[in-house]
Specification:
Helix content is 67%, strand content 3%. The mean pLDDT is 81. It has a domain of 83 residues. It has a two-stranded antiparallel sheet with strand order 1-2. 31% of the residues are buried. The protein is mainly α and 131 residues long.
Length: 131
């Protein structure tokens, strides 16, 4: 199974397009005007936005790794890109134009999601990573 995944990761143009598309989705969802919240929910005592931040940046890190798989520093670069985008989106929310609010808990969730994505990658591809 791991050989199939490794051969699939060689199709880097697909993952680069996917990474670009995922980045645009994250930027849009982070900066769009907030809508009417119908009901809020929690998952294991975490607010819904914390769960969404964690999930989003976890997946974004994995997609960046897939896009940069052929590079020597794919792990470091994918983590850096996803965490930088997360911090930048939170800092942009300080601008009143976006009608969003800055939250350090969101940055912590972004970091945790990115870090867990890297951990998963290191566990799954321990023998094939070049770093």
């Amino acid at each position: 199974m791991q050989r199939i995944i490794l051969s699939w990761l060689q199709a880097d143009k697909f993952f680069k397009v996917l990474a670009l598309f995922a980045t645009f989705i994250v930027v849009y969802l982070s900066l769009k005007r907030p809508g009417q919240e119908s009901s809020s929910w929690t998952f294991l005592f975490f607010r819904q936005d914390i769960v969404l931040h964690f999930s989003c940046y976890f997946l974004l890190t994995v997609v960046y790794f897939a896009a940069l798989f052929k590079h020597n520093s794919a792990i470091k670069t994918s983590f850096s890109f996803s965490f930088f985008i997360g911090c930048l989106m939170e800092l942009l929310q300080l601008i009143s134009f976006f009608e969003r609010t800055f939250d350090l808990a969101d940055i912590a969730a972004n970091f945790t999601g990115s870090f867990c994505g890297i951990l998963l990658i290191q566990i799954l591809f321990a023998d094939s990573l070049k770093e």
